[in-house]
Amino acid sequence: MSDANKPIAYMQRTHDYYLALGYGAPYEWASFAEVPFTPLAKPLAECTVALVTTAAPYQPDKSDQGPGAPYNAAAKFYEVYDAPTAEIPDLRISHIAIDRDHTTAEDMGSYFPLAALKNAADAGKIGKLADRFFGLPTNRSQRTTIDVDGPALLAHCQKHNIDAAVFVPNCPVCHQSVSIVARILEQAGIATVIMGCAKDIVEHVGVPRFLFSDFPLGNAAGRPNDPASQTATLAMALNLLETADHPRSTVQSDLLWVGAPDWKDDYSNPAKLSPEEIARRKQAFDAGKAAAKKVLNG
């Protein structure tokens, strides 16, 4: 397989990137030998399906969060939230490390497939879209994800009688967070599928079902401004949700990215950054951490 066809090794890439920025000890990604697996208790066409996102509700007082916005730590959220699915909400992903060089997050359908799920419900492919969708924090603390965020999301799902959940992460740490929480739901008898773009992270954690799209981060639900690709991507995820019969079931989407072909080489690649750019990014990262700490501490 040529390098152009290989998925990005996000764990190694982020290690090299933050080492270049001057941070020492590498982050230790979660990994589990055993993977829980819950088959659907009934046909998908009879199931209540929930959507779980790592996108944040738009906050007008938190600076730029629009398409193409730089990383905005102030726009992060730190607790599981829920909101109605009756209308399409205004969610943004400016608070996470998506691929800002090759995507702009201008089309919410590429990272939040609520419209596609509504269409699937109308077509009878799922029994019902849950009345609420759920937001899961992007948390580097695996212990917090396991002890706090996971149980909180499970409680929401149980309250709303969820049969199955579709998780859609965005940044590298998002992929770890949703993978950990998908395991918690599976252990409690709720089937899950992850739609993601960071293959190495999800498979390193170990999950029941994973639809991998080899797209820049921030497009796990399909190509932007391409409803057909978003419909097809969701259909593949739902098919995997229904047909997988064992854990660690990974299916790769056959859809191709149509943007610049060098996106894989560009993402957080310190070899392509000047010393001045590395210094600028370190300063911005430190400022972001300070802003996030301020929000977390009130």
From TrEMBL:
Domain of life: Bacteria
Name of the protein described by the UniProt record: Glycine reductase
Origin organism lineage: Bacteria, Pseudomonadati, Pseudomonadota, Alphaproteobacteria, Rhodobacterales
